[in-house]
């Protein structure tokens, strides 16, 4: 009987040691490697956009990534991902945190960890300026003759598939190319966040976002992490709270999102 109990306690000890190793934690891993691995799609102005001319990432999430790495006294290293692969890459621990305009949605919270939100946006329409009067509601867009161009895998596609089922959908892999294609007449509208729509209107006078002040949804943006590492989630939330309190986040929102 003693040997049975002994084997039982040994098994429990091994189990707990394995759990402890499994959740050694991103904070420890980051410190050991001297690098913060940040996943980004690099295709979302003004959140996290890869500028091929400068070789640098730009946007509010790019600045937050730099601040987060600096707070940890480590080097920032970007790990490219895509919207269709984002969830898998997070769950496979290919990077420590994703910062690229990630929306807080229930599907992600159930299987991953989301930080507190730090900027609010919503889905809206981007179209040619000379057609802006034609798109004043979802009903105006939800027609077979309206061509919606979108990239696969993100919340833009989820919104279109659920709310605009009658429209004609054209898939395009490169999100950052879609506004230019809308301006060129390759499609009629793009459904995206107000931040992105307004930024492209500022960049291209041929475009318009006629409903940017009346978005179809309300969405909060957040950092996305692997589920199960509470100290790491707490740390990211702590940094965001400090940046809000000291005025840094309000300044970044003013710089990039207004």
From TrEMBL:
Signal sequence range: 1-24
Pfam family, any one: SBP_bac_3
Keywords noted in UniProt: Signal
Domain of life, per lineage: Bacteria
Claim: Signal is one of the keywords in the record: yes
Solute-binding protein family 3/N-terminal domain segment(s): 35-258
Official protein name in the record: Transporter substrate-binding domain-containing protein
